[in-house]
Structures are given as C-alpha cells and as structure tokens.
UniProtKB/TrEMBL annotation:
<comment type="similarity">
    <text>Belongs to the INSIG family.</text>
</comment>
<dbReference type="GO" id="GO:0016126">
    <property type="term" value="P:sterol biosynthetic process"/>
</dbReference>
<dbReference type="GO" id="GO:0005783">
    <property type="term" value="C:endoplasmic reticulum"/>
</dbReference>
<feature type="transmembrane region" description="Helical">
    <location>
        <begin position="211"/>
        <end position="235"/>
    </location>
</feature>
<feature type="transmembrane region" description="Helical">
    <location>
        <begin position="247"/>
        <end position="269"/>
    </location>
</feature>
<keyword id="KW-1133">Transmembrane helix</keyword>
<protein>
    <submittedName>
        <fullName>AFR043Wp</fullName>
    </submittedName>
</protein>
<feature type="transmembrane region" description="Helical">
    <location>
        <begin position="86"/>
        <end position="106"/>
    </location>
</feature>
<keyword id="KW-0256">Endoplasmic reticulum</keyword>
<dbReference type="InterPro" id="IPR025929">
    <property type="entry name" value="INSIG_fam"/>
</dbReference>
<keyword id="KW-0812">Transmembrane</keyword>
<dbReference type="Pfam" id="PF07281">
    <property type="entry name" value="INSIG"/>
</dbReference>
<dbReference type="GO" id="GO:0005789">
    <property type="term" value="C:endoplasmic reticulum membrane"/>
</dbReference>
<keyword id="KW-0472">Membrane</keyword>
<feature type="transmembrane region" description="Helical">
    <location>
        <begin position="143"/>
        <end position="163"/>
    </location>
</feature>
Length: 271
C-alpha cells in the first residue's frame, strides 16, 4: 500500500492525474517540424538563384540578339554610305565633264565687232585636248578631252582649299545657277553690244569680273588663282596675241570660267 501511495503522490507532483494518458508526439512529425523551416530556407534560396539565373540568361540572349541586329543594321548602313559616296562622286564627275564640254562651246562662239573673233578664246582648250590625246596615244575622243578639262577646272579650287586647309562657307545651288547666268550674260553682252574697240570691251569685262568675284567669292586665293590661269592660257597662245585687248580677253574669260567651275566644284565636293 505504501508503494502504491507513493506512486500516486509522484503522479500528482508531476501535474497529472493517476491513470490519465500522456500524449507523445510521433517522431516523424517532430522531425518534420524541426527540419521543415531549415529545408525551406535552403531550397528557397536555390529556387531564387535558379530564377535569377534564368532571367540573367534570357536577358543576355536578348542583348545578344539586339547587338546582332544592330551590327547587321550598321553593316547595311555602311554599305549604303559607301555606295552613296561612290554614286555621288560619279555624278559629280559627269556634271563637271558636261560643264567642260559646254564651256568649250561657249568659248568658240565668243566674239566682238573688232579684234576678238570666233574660236580665239577656245585655243588654249584645244591645246589641252591635243595634249590629252597624246598622253592617251590617240585613244581619247575629242569630247572626252573637253570633259577632262572640265573635271580639272572644277577640282582645282577644292584641291587648293584642301591643301591650304581653307574653311569655306556652304555653297548652295542658287549660287551656282547665278554664276552660270552671269557667265552667259557677259558672253551675250560682248557679242551683242557695239563696242568702239576690243580694248573697251575687254576692259569693261575685266572690271565686271572684279565685281562678280566680290559678289560670288571675294577670297584672295580665288583672285590669284583665276588671274594665274588667265595668264597661263595667254602664254600658251602668245603667238596669236597681237593686241593688249586680246591678252585681256584671255584673262577675262578664264578668270570667269574658274570662278564658275570653282563654285560648281565646291558645291559638288562639299556634299
């Protein structure tokens, strides 16, 4: 009896009644409760890292496709730019060549009512064509020779600008057209006006060239270059010159020609 009573007292001290069942949690539930938070933290980080990796890879692939597209577009634009430059150069040379042929025709029909007769101012151009034909062993046609002279005339002033690193203003098409009208107007005036002498006509043209130079350009390099070209053409035909007015005609015509071709060349080569 004393032993049984002792057990009952121990049970009461433990906070339970004698005979009441003691609930013990299953071992699997306990393990799950203990390990689930830790496992969730570990695998959650792995899931997040996996998602971040997938997003990074997708972004990298997208960026690679964008770079490839940009590279292909840049390559196509470079090809178009080169082709456009080539076509522009060819068209510029064609325009200068046609202008050279027209310039020769204008020189053939320039005359006054005194000492300036037809074909006189065209003789330096004819000599230039003969030189081109000799250099090409007679393979170059006559019209192509005048076209080459137009290309040389139109490229002379832009080449000087590039060599001296001269920064010139933008030449627009209206300025080129005005220079054409000025050249045609002067040539028509020389032919139609009844001059008292060739010296009067050539002197008036010389003064008009100065006005046109100030109006269209005004640079000292153009003035010196145009005057030098006029003197060179006069020297090539010095045997034909019998009067001072004829010398002035050479300077007048080729100075105005350089002014026109210079503006045309600057307009074509600036683009």
């Amino acid at each position: 009896m004393s032993k049984k009573k002792h057990e009952e007292e121990c049970g009461e001290r433990a906070g339970g009644k004698v005979g009441s069942p003691i609930v013990v949690a299953a071992s699997t539930d306990s393990m799950s409760m203990l390990t689930k938070p830790q496992l969730f933290g570990i695998y959650d980080e792995e899931i997040v890292e996996s998602e971040d990796t997938e997003i990074y890879e997708e972004a990298k692939k997208s960026a690679g496709r964008m770079l490839d597209d940009m590279g292909s577009v840049g390559a196509r634009s470079r090809v178009r730019t080169r082709s456009q430059k080539y076509m522009h150069l060819v068209s510029s040379l064609v325009i200068l060549g046609i202008s050279g042929i027209a310039y020769h025709q204008l020189s053939r029909n320039l005359h006054d009512n005194d000492l300036l007769h037809e074909d006189f101012t065209s003789r330096p151009l004819v000599l230039g064509v003969k030189l081109c034909q000799q250099l090409s062993f007679g393979m170059l046609p006559t019209w192509a020779g005048y076209a080459v002279e137009g290309i040389l005339f139109g490229s002379l002033l832009p080449a000087v600008d590039y060599w001296r690193r001269i920064s010139v203003g933008k030449v627009n098409l209206s300025g080129v057209l005005r220079s054409i009208n000025a050249m045609l107007g002067v040539s028509f005036g020389i032919r139609r006006v009844e001059w008292s002498s060739s010296l009067q006509a050539s002197g008036a043209w010389f003064l008009l060239d100065g006005i046109l130079w100030l109006f269209f350009d005004g640079s000292f390099s153009v003035f010196l270059l145009g005057f030098a070209v006029g003197l060179v053409t006069a020297v090539t035909c010095y045997e034909e010159i019998t009067d001072f007015s004829q010398l002035l005609y050479f300077i007048d015509f080729y100075f105005l020609g350089l002014l026109f071709f210079g503006r045309l060349g600057r307009y074509l080569y600036q683009r």
